[in-house]
Each structure stands twice: as structure tokens, then as C-alpha cells.
Amino acid sequence: MHRFLIVIEKTNDNYSAYSPDLPGCVATGAARDEVEQNMYEAIELHLQGLKEDGLSIPQPTSFAEYIAVR
Description:
The chain has a 3-stranded antiparallel β-sheet with strand order 1-2-3, with helices on one face. 14% of the residues are buried. The mean pLDDT is 96. It has one helix at residues 32-52, and strands spanning 7-10, 15-18, 26-29. It is α+β, with helices and mostly antiparallel strands.
């Protein structure tokens, strides 16, 4: 099992997401739960494509943290 960080951003009309560890792997959705599901599917397809091309799956190295500022 692989765990990849995804970044979800709210736009004016929908949500978009990407994974810093998987360049080019992106998804959109009308709602947050939709973009999460679409991103899950996008990552599955991305990893399948890497395998089919004989490429290795990159090790996740990204992480996120919130910083509180006064």
C-alpha cells in the first residue's frame, strides 16, 4: 500500500487536487468529497501507467503541517 499526500484547493467554481509526489497527477470535482474520489482514481491510473511503462513507483516524501500565526 502506498500513501500519497494530496493538496486540495477551493476555486471559485469547484475543487482541484494534486499530489506533489506524482507530477502531472491532478483531478477536479464539484465538491470536496468528489475531488477526493476523483484524485483516488487518478492516482490508481497514474500508478498503473507507471507499472505498465516499467517505471518504479516513487516513494512518497511530501508531508503537510499547519502553522498557527497570531
